[in-house]
Amino acid sequence: MIDARPTRLRGVLAPVVTPFHANLDVNAGEFVRHCAWLLENGAGLAIFGTNSEANSLSVAERIRLTETLLEAGLPASSMMPGTGTSSLVDTVSLTRHAVHAGAGGVLMLPPFFYKKISDDALFAYYAEVIERVADERLSLYLYNIPALSGVPISLDLIERLLTRYPDTIAGVKDSSGDWANTKAMIDVFARDGLDIFPASEALLSTALPLGAAGCISATANVNPRNIALLCERWRSEEATALQDSVTRIRKVFESVPMIPAMKQVIAHATDDGEWLTVRPPLEQLKQDNSARLIDELTMAGFKFENLRYR
């Protein structure tokens, strides 16, 4: 158990894709290798995020995978596990485990099964989790992804939570897809010390000068080094070229379903067909989409050899 509150996470974090064997069991060894490669290339580990197929993983699987990473020597302080579920009890269990392990923070979805929830109800949910975990080391990042959760996290809710729990509410990942919303979060809360993470590296050159903390981006799974360089060098003469490059690659991935697309690219680069496996109800890319993805990434200058981390 770690006693001290970890240092805040900044820069680029990857919602780490979860590899499965052909029988749909988690491939823990490959998960460790991919996480280690991400760290080596400058990305933090937002394990069990949306693009991790987290909602297809059980509580036991998430805890076991976290323990596997720790046993392999990967630093907990570089991890921001997703812990939000529709079950209050499961959310508390996952959050408590992450805090005790020394995670740099937790990324918490709202209770996404329940739609049209009032801010009062959401406040009660988050407050109950915080009170039950009851640990001053908890750094909680709210996860706003209304297109999938159906439950938007408003600026008023953030303000209420920050007022009640100023030492616990650490930031927000905004996957609203609405730059005006992301900018409002940065403008209102960054000066109060909240770390605001857009969900796409395409926004970095715009968001970082305003005070954004970095980004938590799906495509950091396959392009971490260049995104990390942009986070580090956004004031430099290289910034425009870096931004153009990462945006171009991001747009290719956005043209197809993101999770199977990233797994397709990793499988192609590593020559490991098991990487293609997704848990139902997700489906692998169709053959024509797979071929088009590889061709378009090649034309965009994507370096597949950089993914050969074996």
From TrEMBL:
Keyword Kinase (UniProt): no
EC number, as in UniProt: 4.3.3.7
Name the record gives this protein: 4-hydroxy-tetrahydrodipicolinate synthase
Keywords, alphabetical: Lyase
Family: Belongs to the DapA family.
Residues the entry annotates as binding pyruvate: 216
GO molecular function: 4-hydroxy-tetrahydrodipicolinate synthase activity
CDD domains: DHDPS-like
Coiled coil: none
Enzyme class: lyase
Active-site residues per Swiss-Prot or TrEMBL entry: 143 (proton donor/acceptor), 173 (schiff-base intermediate with substrate)
Organism listed in the record: Paraburkholderia bryophila
InterPro entries to which the protein is assigned, alphabetical: Aldolase_TIM, DapA-like
Pfam families tied to this protein: DHDPS
